[in-house]
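Morning!

This is the sequence you dropped in the shared folder:
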Amino acid sequence: PTYEDLDPVRYLGNRSSGRMGFAVAAEAKTRGADVHLVTGPTTLEVPPGIDAVRIRSAAEMEHAVFSIMQEQDLDVVVMTAAVADYTFVEGCAATKLHKDDSELVLRLRRTTDILSSLGSWRGDAKYPVLVGFSAETGPALDRAQDKLKRKGVDLIVANDISERGAGFDGDTNVATLVFEDGIDPLSIRTKRELARSILDRVCLKFVDGGRSVPRHV
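The structure's back. C-alpha cells below.
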C-alpha cells in the first residue's frame, strides 16, 4: 500500500498487504532476474538478494520508480502496488489535528497514475513490458480491458476482491490475465503460483518478440 499522511498520527491508507508484489519479486529472482522492489509500508521481509526501496506515499513511489527507470535498463515493470488515488491537498499537518464538536472536511486531490505515466513514457516501444493490476469489488474484466488500452500496457491482472479466496492480506488470489489478443482466467491459487502464471505470460511476450527471457525486473 501507500499511506498519505494527514498529520503525525493519522493517514489515508488501504488494506493491501504487499504479498502479491513480494511474490512476483521472489518468483522473478528464482528465475534468475535482477530484481528491484519498490515497496510501501508492510511487515513482509524482502526476499534475499533483492534490491529494495522502501517508500510511504504515492509521490515517493512515483519518484522511486522513475529513478530506477532512469538508472537501469529494465526488461519488465510489474505494478502490483495499491497506490493511493488521492492525497490531501494541504499535505501533512505539522502537529496533530485535535477534534472538536464540528465536522471535519478534508480536501483531496488526485495522485499521479504511475502506470499510465509509464505507458506514456514508453510510447510505441515494445520494452520494457508493462504489467498492471485491476482490483475491483465486482466483475473486473471490462475495466481491465479498458485500462489495458487507455494506459498503453501489455498485461492487466484483473481480480474481484470480493470473490472468495481473492483480495488483500490473504495467501491466495483469483485473477484473469488480460492482454491485447485475449484473456486467461485463472482459478484460485496461491499468490506465488499466480506470480508464476504472470511471469510465464511475460516470458511469452519476449519469445514472440524474438528476445531472450527477461533478466532485469
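Headline: The chain has a mean pLDDT of 93.

More detail when I'm at my desk.
O.
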